[in-house]
Amino acid sequence: KNIMENKFFTPQSSLIRGIVALVIGLLAIFLPKLTLQTIIIVMGIMLLIGAILFIILAIRSDIKKEKNVLLIQSAINLALGLLFVFFPGPIVSIFVILLGIMLLILGVFSLINLYSFRKIARIPFFALAISVLVIIAGIVLLFNPFETAQAILIFLGIVLIVYAIGEFYSAWMLKKNTSKE
Q1: Cα–Cα distances in Å, from 158 out to 41, 81, 108?
Q2: How far apart (Å, rounded) are the C-alpha atoms in residues 54 and 1?
């Protein structure tokens, strides 16, 4: 039985998550004076773009399991994107908690992703460290929120760029290992 058939992550979806995280991360670091509300709206737009890309990938996919995963990712991005775009005020008030939860989930997904190709490739310490860093960042944001919005944005930017690097690496590894078969 082919190991890659069991994966719930595709090189394309890892790449899209990485690009979205990188763009948001760079905005947060280099434009920290933007209001949190503006950042929330930009994040919502990026999530909506991601949802559209996941739908396109799902339509183009011939693999039923991959198509289903892409459609689920699309639905999640769509729901979050619409919330972020149309209700930025309330989202800002719970932003740190949501961010902490999102980072925990992303870190866990990243660990699951690494685990899924452990039998076909040695998992480098760097990739494992990124996943653990993202999980720790989520925990820190949940239990010890930063004092200022600017510190949150800069921290978010750094964490998202690190996460994006991990997603780019995952996309590269999955693509490399898929093409070997």
Answers
A1: 19, 21, 18
A2: 27
From 71, 157, 166, select the one nearest 112 (Cα to Cα): 166
Higher pLDDT, 151 or 174: 174
pTM: 0.46
CA–CA separation, 118 and 16 (whole Å): 22
Integer Cα distance of 153 and 25 in angstroms: 8
- Tokens 């994107």 label which residue? 81
161 pLDDT above the threshold of 90: yes
CB 7 within 8 A of CB 174: yes
Contact of 117 with 173, CB cutoff 8 Å: yes
> Cα(122)–Cα(177) distance, rounded to whole angstroms?
12
pLDDT tens sequence across 101-131: 888 999 998 888 888 877 777 878 888 888 8
Name every residue whose Cβ is closer than 8 Å to that of residue 17 and which is 6 or more positions away in sequence. Answer: 50, 106, 164, 167
Q: Which of 5, 9, 106, 104 is nearest to 54 (CA)?
A: 9
